[in-house]
Queue: 3 jobs
Job 1
Amino acid sequence: MNKITIFTDGSARGNPGPGGYGVVLLAGKHRKELSEGYRMTTNNRMELLAVIRGLQALKTNQYPVEIYTDSRYVCDAVTKGWLNNWIQKGFKDKKNPDLWMMLHPMLKTFKPSFHWVKGHAGHPLNERCDQLATEAADSGKLGIDTVFEQVQKAEKDKLL
């Protein structure tokens, strides 16, 4: 084994709506799949959470990590330095700071390289992640994206 490869995808029905993420981790001859669904969330949150859960599953930072995502939001935020700027500005007018702050220290620990892949274009592992994410969103076994729901409630309360 000379590297770890992580494929990720997120899904939300209605955006916001029920959502889920899917992850496929590859390390040598080993393969692991992860997925989980939430009752109310967004696609971008699930794209981010997929990367977070993939990195959380790693037991070592001894090997290079490559992350493949069809999310420009996630890939560009990291590779173009947007995330560091958002942190410096306190995430002013930016969404999902809770998840970005979970991801940020992992980027320092694992130093992953990010690669964008076109979604729904037939890449077998991206398609598998999409299947895992949508099945999780549709499963009926849905967790609570607590931060998202709290933010939604606070925004709604401001309007009333």
Job 2
Amino acid sequence: MSKARRSAAGGRRPGASRRRSAARLAAVQALYEMDMVGTPADAVLAEFMAKRWRFSAGEDRSEAMAEPDNAWLTDLVHGVSSRAAELDGTIAPTLSSGMTLNRLETLLRVVLRAGTYELKTKLEVPAAVVINEYVEVANAFFEGKEAALVNGVLDRLARELRAGEL
């Protein structure tokens, strides 16, 4: 377990950090779906909560992903979707020259928005934890250098948004 992951669990029940990690992953999936299909936040959230994390009778839950923290998931999806333009304006200057948000793959753009939203609004979560969590989310979807891009962008943003914390 990484140092950042251990500190994320500090002060909470052991399963709470797993539930927040699951919420982050689900939020990115929901935001991607909203971006691609144009589905409203509440409809996507209802589907996620009703269908995607239901266990069948007799299913081995030890191998299944943790059920997401629904309050965290809801806040992430509503917060990121309602503040997308503001988040994009925060992210854009941190990208390498010649790179624009519109040129990024949709899923990567959503990961960066969610991470930036947490850095701006979830001040109780250490910046290092936010960065680590979204690097892990990127690793769940990509096999290339995308996780390194997420790490670099969120690290630069954390140093600006939370000066002195890192």
Job 3
Amino acid sequence: MNVDKVRDLQEVIARDMAAEAPTGWTRAIASVTTINGHTWLDFLAQVPGEDEAVRYFPDQATFAAGDLDEAMYEPGKGTWFSMECWVLPSGEYHFTFNYDQPATFGDREPVEESWINDLRRHPRDWDKIPDWHLVKQRYTEDEWLASVQRYRDWLASDDESPFKG
């Protein structure tokens, strides 16, 4: 994990969320899920006088959030499935990362193979893969390790066809 890059990306996210939030906001909240390059983002701001949180779209925060999972990858540990960030007008912010629980994509879900390929891209030690994950349902530990190696070999090759695990 590149700690400096992670810090920089988090600062970009928090700063842009604050800068782009609607007038009068009291708290901004980002929810992000990213699996194998499929990303779902939701930025909401609490605004006094509004019955519901106001949805908005901070561009720089969106791009930075899309890079944060890769920057936070750690061999053996993997990377997060989803994260939340809240920001206050004072500039205070906080991030929470979900490495172990199922994540949602709003009203859409990526195909099952995306969940598996996400762990090929960001491998974890076998004991760090949650029991609910499709990898644990479809593979033994040895089969999984062989699949990850085939994926690495495919990435290093000139093969332009889709990976067939």
